[in-house]
Amino acid sequence: MSNSRSTRHRLPPLPCAAYAPSSDCPLRCTLRTHVANTEVELHQHPWAQMVFSSRGVIRVHTGRKVFTVPPWRAVWIPSGTSHTATIIEDARLHSLYLDVDTGARCLAAHALGWAECRVLEVQPLLRELVVALAEEDLGGLPSERYGTLLELALLEIRKAAVLSLGIAVPSERRLSALCDAFLEDPRVDRSLSELSRDVGASVSTINRLFKSEMGCAFSDWRKQALLAETLALAAKGCSMSQIASALGYSSLSSFSFMVTQLVGMPPSKLLKGAKPKLN
């Protein structure tokens, strides 16, 4: 899934007035269709956002982390967080915008972590609630039905499973360029010497920067990036052997070892929850 930044179509975010939540309408939902290789420009807003696709893989950058998420996995973005969204494939992108006061009252009181970005599993009921809320949004003023849908949607968001899909990204210029290049084409057979040369740094310099900025070795960071790509490919319907080949593994067993080492289970078990779902 290699894409060139130079050929990306850059898109401004929606104007705030078009979808701003309020105390009267604390949860707004939008649906936009995007073509592959589109990047929604860097922006932030004074309310929380939950963004996911019902078709297509997306990548969300939020400061020091990047989330590559397949369909029906959502990125939670707290208010005031600068972020961009890259559309890897043609996608139907759903966004939920939650009023800050409502979010503080309904979410923060129930669990820690809502002040940070996280990836959530979007279960079937929440999917249908998002569709229904978007239809209510088009109708104008909130209705009695809207209030019921809102409370149920917030309950589903609170109980959604949290997935460990965030990948740390650095601030140092050369290391950031190297990580971005790897995420554009994540393969285990891409050597560190090649990646380092492309950003004008030595392997020893890059190794030192990984330790000082990321607190880990390149090989450890790479595994997390490959795991995120594994779930994205599984969501497209790829088999384990196809995924292993796409990620540059010479054998299925070496790919299986990597996944098991990271998450404590073989890919056959992990990927059961990542298969394509009906839209």
Automatic annotation (TrEMBL):
What InterPro entries does the annotation carry? AraC-bd, Homeodomain-like_sf, HTH_AraC, HTH_AraC-typ_CS, RmlC-like_jellyroll, RmlC_Cupin_sf
Gene3D superfamilies found in the cross-reference section: Homeodomain-like, Jelly Rolls
Q: Which residues form the signal peptide?
A: none
Q: Which GO terms describe its molecular function?
A: DNA-binding transcription factor activity; sequence-specific DNA binding
Q: Output the GO biological process annotations, alphabetical, semicolon-separated.
A: positive regulation of metabolic process
Q: Which SMART domains match?
A: HTH_ARAC
Instruction: Show the Pfam families listed in the entry.
Output: AraC_binding, HTH_18
Give UniProt keywords alphabetically: DNA-binding, Transcription, Transcription regulation
Top-rank lineage group of the source organism? Bacteria
HTH araC/xylS-type domain span: 173-273
User: By what name is this protein known?
Assistant: Putative AraC-family transcriptional regulator
